[in-house]
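Before relying on records like the one below, remember that each one covers exactly one chain. Contacts with other chains, cofactors or solvent are not represented anywhere in the record.
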Amino acid sequence: MKININNFSLLKFSNILILILIIFVQSCGIPTITLKDANKELPNSFQGSEDTLNSAKLPVEEFFKDQELKNLIDSAIVNNKELNILLQKISVSNNEILNRRGEYLPFIKAGTNAEVDKVGNYTRTGAVEENLTIKDGAKFPSPFTNFQFGLYSSWELDIWKKLRNAEKVAIMEYLASLEGKKFLVTNLVSEIANSYYELIALDNQLITVEKNIEIQQSVLEIINLLQQSARSTSLAVKRFEAEILKNKGEIYTIKQEIVEVENKINFLFGRIPQTIKRNSIGFTELQTNLMQSGVPSQLLQNRPDIKKAELELMASQLNIEVAKTNFYPSLSLKTGIGYQSFNPRFLLNTPQSMLYSIGGDLLSPLVNRNAIEAEYLNASAKQIQSAYEYEQTILIAYNEVMNELSRINNLQTNFQLKNEEVNKLIESTEISKQMFQSARADYMEVLLTQRDALDSKMKLIEIKKKQFLAMINLYRKLGGGWY
């Protein structure tokens, strides 16, 4: 339905009533939908503590004490390929805001046009041109040329806030992409820190195995001397030689794991494999940070994935309003002003060669609205889906924090017990060595005691590594670690 605004005053009152009736009928035909409110309720505390101090508030440079690790993190934030790819996607989301914002502003174009046209004489247009004189007896030119230039504007009036809501959706999606970037950064920081401490643990396991080989070789020398004096047998020599060879083989297994972890870190940097600088001395004596979990409700503000899910839920709610406006009429205005003439020398004659136009379109869907209804119902379904996803993200976050808090407590107790075990076995190793030299113990007791001591030391290093990983993971799962 098109309405020329110049003739708008000529519309009869009955026609206006018909238009109002069409709008009313359209609005009454909108399908009924159901919306879902997301449940954000969480317990009041973690493990009974209502202390609001939260380690997630600490920036990365304060949370991590190792300078080499902080240098690695800074480098990865700049050079990580996945993060740089995401930054470009965020730029696209930002540009979409400008695109949506421009849609509800008037479009103004400047243009020029030149064309030539020849119609048949035995057509309506040709017959008119054949008998038409323009001025001073001159005939209508044939072929007909046309030259024009001017300004042209079109504007869709956002009477139902469809375009403005679409812009808000774009803003929500942009903000969600920023939270997605924070989520990627905190995961990247966590992955680098985990790999760094895994690398240090492997270094310490390598040192432990090498030291154990030195101890076994010293015992082997004693066994060789005792064999020469007939106080030991070649069986003891062979068993210790086999044990040393087994541990030497373990060295190369650990070295391969070190190479793979270094390459993993280098991949996160977006660079070719090279040696990773790290501080590996005194690993088992290092103390992890005292972690403060705050209260569960702080997860809603600190976790980027929760904030991202919340923004996506808000965007899905606005999308319903956008889809709903498709049932209503749309009103657009078109205007133009310029000059037009069949001959360039008449083009700037004013007012003879001036042209102007103004008009409007009022369009409303009447039949076959299946596509509009489907889009509206889909928007409703996506809103419900987003609400469930938001609830699920909150639930996952809470469970992750609870698991890490429990893991930290259990690892602390486990480390203390294992440390005592290592000390006892170190003492047992020395005692068994002395008893073997005085013939009060056989070689198997020495061998098994050393084997148990090595296994216990390796497990102690593994537990210490798990303590650091649990600390890092809790920091991430509380919502810390992004810049």
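Residues 370-437 form the longest helix (68 residues).
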